[in-house]
Amino acid sequence: MKKISALIIFAVLVSVSTFAEKNPIPETIQEKAVVHIYRPSRIVGFGWVFKLKTKGKESAKVKNGKHLTLELEPGKTEFRINNNFIEMNLEKGKHYYIRASLVRNMFLGKPEMVEVSEQQAKKEIANL
Fold first, then answer.
1. 8: helix, coil or strand?
2. Which entry of 28, 48, 60, 75 is 20 to 30 Å from 15 by CA?
3. Is residue 19 domain-resident?
4. Does residue 42 belong to any structural domain of this protein?
């Protein structure tokens, strides 16, 4: 009895996989821009969490040694951490990369954001 039921289940699985579509989910054109924001791991300022604002609203927290991805509407967008900001004109379907870091100043340090190339960002994200 066990052999027969196992054989029936196997036959059903084979027939379903044979007639299933190869790609049941159609590819869609991405309507949003993808922004990758990462912060390399450093000992100095490791406990400081940056509050990222986009279009005047807090949108994410950028932590030491972490990477996050935001899907945003295309158009002019400002990314701000404290007094440091970057303005970008985002295009739909494109990927953008921003590195956040803590740079030393006279006292404790200050957050800084820099737009980087995809190649450089992927290399640095792999080392997080």
1. helix
2. 28
3. no
4. yes
Domain membership flag for residue 79: yes
Helix (H, G, I), strand (E, B) or coil at 60: strand
The CA radius of gyration of the chain, in Å to the nearest whole number, is 23
Is 22 domain-assigned?
no
30-89 per-position pLDDT tens digit = 789 999 999 999 887 888 899 999 988 898 999 999 999 999 999 999 999 988 999 999
Q: Is 17 helix (H, G, I), strand (E, B) or coil?
A: helix
Domain count, the chain: 1
- CATH of residue 78's domain is 2.60.40
Per the listing, tokens 């049941």 go with: 24
* Residues facing 97 on adjacent strands: 36, 116
User: What are the φ and ψ backbone dihedral angles of 125, each rounded to 5 degrees?
Assistant: -65, -35
- Give the predicted TM-score (pTM) of the model: 0.73
Token pair, residue 25, equals 């989910």
Domain that holds residue 63: 33-126
Contact yes or no for 40/65 (Cβ under 8 A)? yes
Half-sphere exposure of 116 (CA within 13 A, CB side): 21
Q: How far apart are CA 70 and CA 10, in angstroms?
A: 43
